[in-house]
Amino acid sequence: MDNLVDIDKMTFRRGGRVIYNDISLNVPKGKITAVMGPSGIGKTTLLRLIGGQLTPDQGDIRFDGKSIVAMNRSKLYETRRRMSMLFQSGALFTDMNVHDNVAFPLKEHTRLAPDVIDTIVALKLQAVGLRGAAKLMPSELSGGMARRAALARAIALDPDLIMYDEPFAGQDPISMGVLVKLIRQLNDALDVTSIVVTHDVTEVLTIADYIYILADQKVIGQGTADEIRNSESPLVQQFLKGEADGPVPFHYPSDKLEDALFGDVK
Amino acid sequence: MNPIQALGANSIAKVAAIGRAGLMLIGAIFALPKLKNVPLTIQQIYVVGVQSLLIIVVSGLFIGMVMALQGYTILVDYGAEGSLGPMVALSLLRELGPVVTALLFAGRAGSALTAEIGLMKATEQLSSLEMMAVDPLRRVVAPRFWAGLISMPLLAAIFSAVGILGGHVVGVDWLGVDAGSYWSLMQSSVEWGNDVGNGIIKSLVFALVVTWIAIFKGYDSTPTSEGISKATTQTVVFSSLAVLGLDFILTALMFGIE
Amino acid sequence: MNKYKAELMVGVFVLLSIGALLMLALNVANQTMSTKGDTYTLYAKFDNIGGLKERSAVKVGGVTVGRVTSITLDKKDYTPVVELSIISKYSEFPETSSVSILTSGLLGEQYVGFQPGFSFDGIANLQDGDYLQDTKSALVLEDLIGQFLFSRGKDED
Asked: Which ranges of the sequence are coiled-coil (chain B) (predicted)?
């Protein structure tokens, strides 16, 4: 199978703390790949690594067969035009309305005539159901609408890869359902490759073609949705069922409570 | 960490920050020759320059008036109230114009620049630009930098001109200094290159420093509400200190050493 | 915000600052005698130049005709040499002209007062690079007081 993104034995440290230790990950072309894991293990960092905003300490990351790590600046910028990222907050430009936000990448990277751009923007907004909201400012949108507007902007240039950073976090069930449907539809209709980073298990299991579960700096489980559900790994099961304590401990590493309370005063 | 280690780590971090600031400045300066950025820069001159106009005009007027009042009470004892014009004009052009404008600019526009860029960072707008293959240095930082550099000398010129008019109002219209001697003595003691020109050079240097600090503090801020508030405070404090310190050095170079 | 409005306001801002600069240039600063224009150079030796500085004015009957461009000390006899740069328009001063260092008002700046001499037959005009022979030094307050005390002392004897 053809992979769009290959992560090969990659190690990444930040401020002396190891975030990823020698992990390997493949994202097949035209599929939705989900990356799950508990909060705070650097899932967003993974997307930034793929986007070339961060550089791994060891190992390699390849996009369409070419190493992102070894690219110079202009090559990297060229490659980034083929990917887009939906940030957790949407990251709409607050000083422009929705229409201008979606038109922004088109104006920056193409020389299309203004009326052509207007048409494209209208189509993209129609795809996410926000054509009527084109004149609104980002501050006037609800969280879910902002994310959909950002999604329209992300697909403006018809990228090969869309990366979703926690697309479902903090959404009500209806907008969550809308987003799930949108991700699936866009993936099939535009023939793009999607990476969804999330910790919302149930939603992702319904749409993802392949799933990686990260914890403890490593990949602890991978497979299709069914394989994951039937996994025997206690870690995976704890994550799927949302148990408070287990292989992923409830407590942040610390000394023993008894020592802290009753131990000798240092 | 023991204190010596902490001191060392702190110093290394500071040097690294200076390095990042320098790299950012270079990135912003070399981003000028794009024609596409001219409308963006004009937009920013509106935000940074035009919106600072009111505070500059009002402060200039009052400072000119106060100087005329103070100067008059001292000069009149020596029968030299005719020298009020040169006194007001020279202190405004050489010192107060550039310095007070820079301080007001740091408070009015510098803090706003820091907060805006800091918030753009916190809301991932800068990251998102980068992921769209648009360089935030070129798109966000450069127009603001050039707008600051262009606006401040213009504001300083307006400040001085308004201050001299304010001095005229108090000195000539209220206190009865002869209008002819106010203007003619001013003209005979103020030189275009030496006084006006050096004032503009000072103002350019201050503009560079204040805008640089403001933009860098925003660009390098910790993207949290606490981090942005700290960065905004630091912008005002650092740029005020830098302006006053540099003013002494520049004055010594321009007027002090014969 | 309306883009056109911003552009308009920036235009007003730039015009305002050009106006301010024009006012500074025309009403506040004197650019007539700064440096440019044709000049010729004369030298004058004084015993004492008092508070004369570079860029002090050279005046004939109150009209500025030039500037002091440099002040140096003659290495041989240790007297100050003042270099005067005079506008070429005023080039017909006879050799008998004299210069003195004067003060404008009680507390004013010092300037070089230029007294054109009479021109007889056989008296040439001053040329570029000439030395003025007849010079009067600046009045130094301490010397004046000294003379005054000295003359008082003589009277009482």
From this structure: none
